[in-house]
UniProtKB/TrEMBL annotation, chains A, B:
Its EC number is 4.1.2.-. SUPFAM superfamilies: Thiamin diphosphate-binding fold (THDP-binding). It comes from the Bacteria. NCBIfam families: PRK05261.1-2, PRK05261.1-4, PRK05261.1-6. It is an enzyme of class 4 (lyase). Belongs to the XFP family. This is Probable phosphoketolase. Pfam families: XFP (PF03894), XFP_C (PF09363), XFP_N (PF09364). It comes from Microbacterium aurugineum. The keyword Lyase applies. Its cofactor is thiamine diphosphate. Residues 581-783 form the Xylulose 5-phosphate/Fructose 6-phosphate phosphoketolase C-terminal domain. PANTHER family: PHOSPHOKETOLASE-RELATED (PTHR31273:SF0).
Length: 785, 785
């Protein structure tokens, strides 16, 4: 490296560090053109300095190599607490001012930059949607590598610098995130350069990976399939030495990546390459106060947040803060107006090559609509309701296979080893393979070095990869067992918050929705039983902003097709779709399904017995495939045995229609709700999930007091499908009993029917216990006409 | 090993394999005393064979060494699908029949054993609470190592054989679970022997760790701090060779463990030992059908579940099944009555040394009540409501320090680097240290080789360790940031299901409750902002059985003390306690707090203005520290400015009191609820979490239509505490406005007050935006008397 480069690297580093400290502390006197006074210091000192200097060092050096090698690069800051660093770098390279014109590159802008940080009405203290160049929220930890790999898939020209914090490195998702390298194709995907940043401490504890022998650390990284390059710095190291050694290390890493890609792209390599990674050991709170009040700070956990906590209350701390700020020699870095001097920013790449400005970090700019086939072509023929049987997810699989064929570079399916189990296979494997860059044996089926299906037994990885893929402008779907999607509850929360906050950021372009397909659901766990039964993800999802979340429960194959076509066209949502994979009756033609799904809910006139112009005696509603099947069987029993009861039958596909207009944009108006559900007739509602969710969604509705919901009551075991609905009182017989209990004036005939159904329920359970299968005659109680 | 031992090992292995296959397939003719007929085969073939032979091999060999070395051992089967294997081993060693006397050790019992498996009314297909010897549910994957370490803590004489499945090994929690070895003290804790079971395949995909070069695998294990011993078997290996080699490997591993413990316990070692681990490579579906219908099955993913799926429908499969069963030579293993022959079970240890019978796997047998101090001694002096300030969790910390002193071997605190941040420190570190067996530096504080506080930045590890610790009969507490407890949503679900299922298993003794302390809660995230704001764990928790879950929102230090004393005495629950860590006003004396907590909710007569014998105009309720403070400030405003409005003020500590009696055992009767909340007066409810949870809990109550709830509406950012309540309309001013809007006949004075409060809200927001802190005068609007 030339001397000049080293000087420029150091200038950038000092400037970024200065601006970071300024954000944490200053509300005035931004460039110390006068002595620092108490009133220059913010009243509330918030933020995290500890990790920032390391992040800034990496950023500066990445800049140099982006310029030299004309790289397209993305920066992921795993230690999200490094927010001020990310912002400082974006301000230095000019992106910040382009995004936020009020934050100019002068003293006024610098003052704004400092004041807004971690302040009410300002910007968050972590990397966030507001941060140019970020696709990675710095709130919860653990997902940096998964996001990095997601970003790299199908971006062969992209290099992702992924800084992994040493706290984050202890989390489970990150610990398995390293294995992303077995799923990356060096020909058709980009490169991820993990940089494990060991600054040694978390909030109050040492970081584990900083406290194992170096030999163990090297083994660990080699075990993860990486070739580690270790660079260690002490607080006392000379800046020139720091830049020379770190610059060399980064150069070496990029050389190796280039060599791997060249070999692979020349067709010369079939084996999985061993990708480089960097370990950067540096003191926490590097370049900050060495000691405060007689206690060591730099290089300890005490530097995690605000190294000088009493800068406003103690003259000594105030002077120490001033010394600290002046140690970066700001006068050499900024001109009189407060703008960075040319040498300070000489290393910054231009235009879209600035990591803060790359469109990959604002993926909506790159997003192209999917080329979607006409889903009519995949419809199940339904001559009359219930006349055909089909596996809904298998039908969807055929449609998705065509989506994959038409979008060979922008759509991927993610799943934890359940794509086949959830019946999307075999169809999708006629169109593509599972991408897998570990060993392949002759025995293997549908494994290949490149493919559209990503399977790893880690829901965290699936979700993280998909998030990274979407945030960089592509499309995808995550299929999982319903119960185990709870594994990523917290990731869902963070992504929903990201979407919600992004909607307030004018320069962020819309990204494709995150689509869940939850199958192997609560009602069909014959194999697996109680541990695999949990429909509660829906309860979690509806806690998030109604601007973001959508929940669909298509009840047959054609409604699933119509729903998914809609989901794949949508942006900025999280779409949760629950669908069955077992053979089950089909209810709607494709045209009926489209109309029904566009309304989100509606009556099934062929199942009800109400007369035109008269209110029914009872409203029978259902959401979900199994509940609807039970409800429709119940209506069949009613039509045959109690035809004088006037019923209205409603199916709900779009759960959010149940909420009030003011609570959710999909919410039905009260007038429409009353028109469908009446204001005074009993409603029996058969629901896929926990029953109280329906109460929660409808508690403001006029007829709520007459609403009676059946659903999963946490009663489960390894048993037959019909026994499961029996156990939870969601079965056809109980639903008829519920009607008889609520419709007055029934007389003796109803009492007899009630008793008969009651006995049937007991017999059905006993039969199942004895024979290990459902009483075959139960099928006779299905739509008898 | 002697020839005889090898013969006995093989006999056990064949017997366990035979009994496993029998469970999956047979409903009659259990020992093939006649030709296998179609009707001998179950109608529904459910279960998972693939992993079972490996589990059985390990079990057999562990048996031998337990006998030889007089070990106390626990077996954790990470591949939970291996349920039939666990059951088979327990039947062979006699435990099964002791627990389930109807399942005798003869032909009748064997028939029952087979029929009950994965059958309605029978037992689950996975290892489960019903399985003797198991503390590890085989539903969700990823937690075997965390459970193993939790079991080993404070059990110096225990050896945990922990089988890690190769599917499970891909999950995040398991990938970080290996680091448990840095937290184990070889002197005061027991040993964990991880056995990574590479059988090569998951449901439909290869397992990652089976497809990396052996050198990488060895590096990975060394990087995790283990010394790996690899044993590999092919389907064609002779049984004698299998037993000899696996026996030698297991012996070597146990020798090394013994040496490590001896050295450490002699005081000779200060460095962290490198513990052994085993890698067992063996074919999936080992000993099963090699090929079915011309396709390879043994050694492939096709052996995952039922290798011969059509045994009832195809004569060829039926004959193949018979051949398979007979290949274990059952006639050599069982006598005429169906009981195991002496040589078959010669290796089984006796009594409690049987892994299926160890009391460590039925921890309630070992559990001793904690020695708890009188919490009066830790009370905050409260002369009048609001007169004192305190940090609730810091007060609890002083109490917990004493709990730790009194229970030096049976109580631990778990947390993800937040014990200090949540203010349990410094007090708890006066009583103990953080246990840490990685490198310790002079700089470190409160780190030691042994201690009661376990901190690792992985909520998964914290939860898994605590579960393992509780399930083996000890006590503990998990403290975490409220928002990030969602990381373990799915683990909570699984543990709650375990507790619920255990309650139905008569021989399972009660274990200590799993106690959460959630602090750094949604309302106090000034530092961290939106990503750290999520009170939704409560919504998830209340989905689980009301027999299991308890939710407490103590609103000051004394109510927190009283609550936690109760939690630490309870068994078989999950107690979720949300508490503040910031300085905030204290409301109740200790005696008042005890009475209040024993009722779970109650009026605060000093805050309300109702007259005896008359219904109030409005009921003001609150749950949580911040909402209660806001509500009490609102009552102060009302007392001063609208004293003619008769108010009743209620605080709710035990959230489950709101539910109906029939929905939760803590539920208030409707009469009591009506007495408190009236049947027709408006209720303004200020709630800590998402407001709809209160609606969900109360929708059956008479006065529900008049209930108006304020809570967290997913509006958040980095801002001041008061700005947060303003943003979500939970502030004192809005609460007064809510009252004025609902109490009729107020006249002009109320209109003026309403306008004044409205203006105040706008000004308060503007002040915060401008000054970065709350308007100081807001404090004047607090209980003005």
């Amino acid at each position: 490296m030339r001397e000049q480069q080293i000087r420029q690297l150091d200038a950038w580093w000092r400037a970024a560090n200065y601006l970071s400290v300024g954000q944490i502390y200053l509300r005035d006197n931004p460039l110390l053109r006068r002595e620092l006074a108490v009133d220059d210091v913010k009243p509330r000192l918030l933020g995290h300095f500890g990790t920032v200097p390391g992040l800034n060092l990496i950023y500066a050096h990445a800049n140099r190599l982006i310029r030299e090698r004309d790289l397209s690069a993305l920066y992921i800051a795993g230690p999200g607490h490094g927010g001020p660093g990310m912002v400082a770098n974006a301000w230095l390279d000019g992106t910040y001012t382009e995004r936020y014109p009020a934050v100019t590159r002068d003293l006024t802008g610098m003052t704004r930059l400092f004041r807004q940080f971690s302040a009410p009405g300002g910007i968050p203290s972590h990397a966030a949607p507001e941060t140019p160049g970020s696709i990675h929220e710095g709130g919860e930890l653990g997902y940096s590598l998964s996001h990095a790999y997601g970003a790299a898939f199908d971006n062969p020209d992209l290099t992702v610098f992924c800084v992994v914090g040493d706290g984050e490195a202890e989390t489970g998702p990150l610990a398995t995130g390293w294995h992303g390298n077995k799923f990356l194709n060096p020909v058709s995907d980009g490169a991820v350069l993990p940089i494990l940043h060991l600054n040694g401490w978390k909030i109050a504890n040492p970081a584990l990976l900083a406290r194992i022998p170096e030999e163990e650390l090297v083994n660990l990284m080699r075990g993860y399939g990486h070739d580690p390059i270790i660079v260690s710095f002490e607080a006392t190291d000379a800046a020139e030495d720091v830049h020379r050694r770190f610059g060399d290390a980064l150069e070496t890493a990029l050389d190796r990546i280039a060599a791997i890609q060249r070999t692979a792209r020349d067709g010369a390599a079939a084996d999985r390459p061993v990708w480089p990674m960097l370990v950067l050991r540096s003191p926490k709170g590097w370049t900050g106060p060495v000691e405060v009040d007689g206690l060591p700070v730099e290089g300890t956990w005490r530097a995690h947040q605000v190294p000088l906590p009493s800068a406003r209350d103690s003259e000594e701390h105030l002077r120490q803060l001033e010394d600290w700020l002046r140690s970066y020699r700001p006068d050499e870095l900024f001109d009189d107006s407060g703008a960075p001097l040319p040498d300070t920013v000489a290393l910054a790449p231009g235009g879209d090559h600035r990591m803060s400005a790359t469109p990959h970090a604002n993926g909506g700019l790159l997003r192209q609509d999917l080329d979607l086939p006409d889903f009519h072509g995949f419809a199940v023929e339904v001559e009359s309701p219930g006349a055909a049987d089909a596996q809904a997810t298998a039908v969807l699989g055929r449609y998705l296979a065509e989506v994959i064929r038409r979008n060979p570079r922008t759509f991927r399916l993610f799943g934890p080893d359940e794509t086949a189990s959830n019946r999307l296979a075999p169809a999708v494997y006629e169109a593509t393979d599972k991408q897998w860059n570990a060993q392949i044996l002759d025995l293997d089926e549908h494994l290949a070095r490149a493919g559209r299906v990503m399977e790893v037994l880690s829901e965290h990885q699936c979700q993280g990869w998909l998030e990274g893929y979407l945030l960089t402008g592509r499309h995808g779907l995550f299929n999982s067992y319903e119960a185990f999607i709870h594994i990523v509850d917290s990731m869902f929360n963070q992504h929903a918050k990201w979407l919600e906050a992004s909607a307030q950021v004018p320069w962020r372009a819309s990204i494709a929705s995150l689509n869940y397909l939850l199958s192997s659901h609560v009602w069909r766990q014959d194999h697996n039983g109680f541990t695999h039964q949990d429909p509660g993800f829906l309860d979690l999802v509806v806690n998030k902003s109604s601007d973001i979340v959508r929940v669909y429960l298509p009840f047959d194959a054609n409604t699933l097709l119509s729903t998914y076509d809609h989901c794949l066209r949508s942006v900025d949502y999280v779409n949760v779709v629950v669908a069955g994979k077992q053979d089950s009756p089909q209810w709607m033609t494709m045209d009926e399904a489209i109309l029904h799904c566009s309304r989100g809910l509606g009556t099934l006139p062929w199942a009800g017995t109400e007369s035109d112009g008269e209110e029914p005696d009872v409203v029978l509603a259902a959401a979900g495939d199994v509940p609807t099947e039970e409800m429709l069987a119940a209506t069949a029993i009613l039509r045959e045995r109690a035809p004088e009861i006037a019923t209205r039958v409603i199916n709900v596909v779009d759960l959010m229609r149940l909420q009030s207009e003011d609570a959710h944009p999909h919410g039905l108006s009260d007038a429409d709700f009353d028109g469908l559900f009446t204001t005074d007739r009993p409603i029996i509602f058969a629901f896929h999930g926990y029953p109280w969710l329906i109460h929660r969604l409808t508690y403001k509705r006029n007829n709520h007091a007459n609403l009676h919901v059946r659903g999963y009551k946490e009663k489960g075991t390894t048993t037959t499908p019909f026994d499961m609905v029996l156990l939870n009182d969601l079965d056809r017989f109980q639903l008829v009993i519920d009607v008889l209990d609520r419709v007055p004036g029934a007389g003796e005939r109803h009492a007899t029917l009630r008793q008969e159904l009651h006995d049937w329920r007991i017999e059905a359970r006993a039969y199942t216990r004895e024979h290990g299968e459902d009483e075959p005659a139960i099928a006779d109680w299905r739509w008898p006409e």
